[in-house]
Amino acid sequence: MSVERIQQHFRDSAAVKLEALETLSVSIAAAIDTMFVALANGNRIFACGNGGSAADAQHFAAELIGRFERERPGLPAIALSTDTSVLTAIANDYSFDQIYSKQVWALGQPGDVLLAISTSGNSANVLAAIEAAHEREMIVIALSGKGGGRMQEVLSDTDIHLCVPSDRTARIQEVHLLTIHCLCDGIDAMLLGED
Question: Against a cut of 0.85, is the pTM above it?
């Protein structure tokens, strides 16, 4: 394996992160404010995605329910990708496209937040979840890349779209993870003060 190839991955990742720093910082701050207000009002944050994005949804929920870097009471967050019985029942009885929207309909309340993650912005089940969230009067914070795909067409004016400026899935996922850490840190800073 070429060391140069490995080093190029680091350079490419750093370059995309620096570009995202310029284009996403203000929107990430708005997403933190939105999530904090929802949590302060007793609402919950739901998260969904597929594959690596499902793992990111779980990671986000775990950081809120447990802790990020500082001790605090757990915060109500639910990764919609984790209950295999629910997922397989919905996929079997209805369709895979409805695995998240059915859960949003059943669990979501006005004022809740949906963190919708899709590297392409085209995941049908994530798009359906966004539409269900709107019908439940929830706010959507969307993480995407590759220009945003169809996701940008279904988002409303009150939603926040964090679209990573890259077409490479690995680079998009790397910025999504950093963004999730920014969200968690920002929520903690608003709850506990900046350290």
Answer: yes
